Amino acid sequence: ILIGDNGHDSTQLGFEDVDGFIAIVNETNEWKFSESFGSIGVDTVESVALMDDGDFIVAGNYCLGSAGLQCNMTLGSLPTLDKDDDSDEGNAYIARYDAESGWLWAVPIANQQEVLMFDMFVDANEQIHVSVLFKEILDMNQTIFAGGSQPGVAVMIFDESGVFSSGSAAMSEGGVESFGGFCQNSAGDTFITFTFVGEIAFDEIGSLESNGGGDVVVAKYDENDWLWLQQGGGLGDEFVAGCVESGGLDIQVYGTLEGNASFGDDYTGTTQWFDAFQADITTNGVWNGLNVEGGPGYEMFSAAYRTNAGSAIYAGATTYGF
Fold first, then answer.
1. Which residue, among 248, 240, 220, has the nearest Cα to 306 in the 3D structure?
2. Counting CB atoms within 10 angstroms of each CB, which of 3, 201, 264, 272 has the fewest?
3. Are 138 and 111 in contact (CB under 8 A)?
């Protein structure tokens, strides 16, 4: 790839090798800087967040697709990010970058299975919130996250120096889909939403069973544990794309759904195929309103942004009916 005057090649020739890169553009939309990094496997950047001093946190994956091969990734002059074993499928990482001095630190999130970055954000206290999809057992600085045979979710909190402080997990034997994410309400409370299949069990707080296909789950958490969990869905598939701050202390989850679905006392009519939905939920875990938009095709709200003025921008996809 050519970014401004800087060209970057992947680590290995061929389509099976994918490398990550970061790039900075200045106030006049001119490329100021770019840097690539990678391994012999698939290396990605999934999320970027800004710190108060202008540094930024990069979160992604490294060495995906390298099972059976020795694989590692190096960021600048930092210690190498390795796999736990050559049989590993690949892992997740977070790293901090200073535009003047380069990479400051990097932390692998790894076990002997595949670990995938799910989402990341930095809160007002400069705590770094990270979620990953993982199977079986994940050990982070002697904190054990218990998983199953299919992907579950681990939520972890790191300080500004990349030191792990706490976390919680949700184990699923049916699996967690790879879309959803974090959000906060106007008071800074923290939530995560995702789609699960079958049964999912949250550490020390309870479990849920999907109604048919994939169901939506919303969970509130703090630095110590899960606080509550709430479910929405029906006999068809419901796929949540994310969540965003809503009115008062509510948040709003959004995505697409099929057939009839219930969100607390609110329920949908029968869809023609998949329809886009928005559902509000209070900071206490009570569903608080549902809106569905659709037609004969596939409709989905896939991204949302809450402005400082209080309005929301939604984007998504729609298709012709079949």
1. 248
2. 272
3. yes
Q: What is the pairing mode between strands 72-73 and 56-64? A: unpaired
In our burial notation (b when 16+ CB lie closer than 10 A, e otherwise), range 155-186 reads bbbbebeeebebbbbbbbebbbeebbbbbbbe
Q: Answer for the pair 198, 215: CB distance below 8 angstroms, yes or no.
A: no
Res 303 pLDDT > 50 = yes
CA dist., res. 227 & res. 221, Å (int)? 5
Residue 4 has pLDDT above 70, yes or no: no
Residue 8 has pLDDT above 70, yes or no: no
| pLDDT tens readout for residues 59-98 | 999 999 999 999 999 999 999 999 988 999 999 999 999 9
Between CA 235 and CA 213 the distance in angstroms is: 6
d(CA 208, CA 220): 15
- If you average pLDDT over residues 166-182, what whole number do you get? 95
Pairing, β 116-122 against β 238-245:
unpaired
DSSP state of 70: -
CA 184 → CA 75, 123, 181, 290, distances in Å? 31, 9, 11, 19
Reported as a single tens digit per residue, the pLDDT across 95-150 is 999 989 999 999 999 999 999 999 999 999 999 999 999 999 999 999 999 999 99
Task: Provide the total of helices (H) and of strands (E) in the chain, helices listed first.
Answer: 0, 28
